[in-house]
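Question: does this match?
>
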Amino acid sequence: MWQQKTVTHNADLADTAVNAALQSALGEALPPAELAEPNATQPQAESDATRRQLIPAGAVEVLAVTPWNSGEHSRNKRDANWYLTPAAAQEVLKQQLAGTSWQSAILVMTMADNPGQLKGQLQQLAQAFETSGISQALRRAAALEKHEEEKRFIAGEEITVTGQKPSAGINALSIYRAASQGVSVSEAIASDKSPAQMLQAFIQKRTERLQEIESAAAAITSAGGAITYCAIIEGVDLASAITGTPPNEQAPLCCIIAIGGSAEEIGKIKEATGL
């Protein structure tokens, strides 16, 4: 069931031809004389269908089976370790899938012998196939590794929490709140710019944002990588599709992330990532 897959993001996701054309058009804008001129890049933007079809628009959900939400604590007061074997994680995943209405799902699994190793594997997994579930698991693994390194528990230490009293000075000044809000309004009006200046500022901000989007889109296709344990399941009963013995079933730490939804939306993710 579990196979090695390689994520290669579809090059069309980084197609920024529309962005480049819009940046060029913005650079040629001469406000406010051209306010009534149509946007020359509109037809090109309307035909930007390839990227639009690759991006899921429906309901795609994520399930995360991790040692912290489905595992067992070490039962040591001075220890923050939680344990979850791949076999146990697979059974938990079956139970969670039974409660969904998914038609298809992409599953990724990682296993480790210690928190540091788990963090390293989750980092590699996040580079290849970043999801909210993997990001959350990575943060927990990093916190667990740090805890294991520092061990800052102090036996017998008592922590006293004291309330904070409101400042009399702040309360006294609150009677001037209405006046201060009036001053803020007058300052805002005084700082108003001409329509030409406001439009030029907007053009500059949009140009900068387009550049940010272009850089981010280019980073999509440069990411990717191998996923050692990946599975794609389909059908009306996804829980029954979880079969076989998981690899290294006695590993003490395991995380399984499932991305699921309609067959159409998961098909888009498969196409966009090359799975």
Remarks:
- The first helix runs from residue 17 to 28.
- The two ends are 14 Å apart (CA to CA).
- The CA atoms of residues 4 and 228 lie 4 Å apart.
- Residues 3-16+51-147+201-273 form one domain.
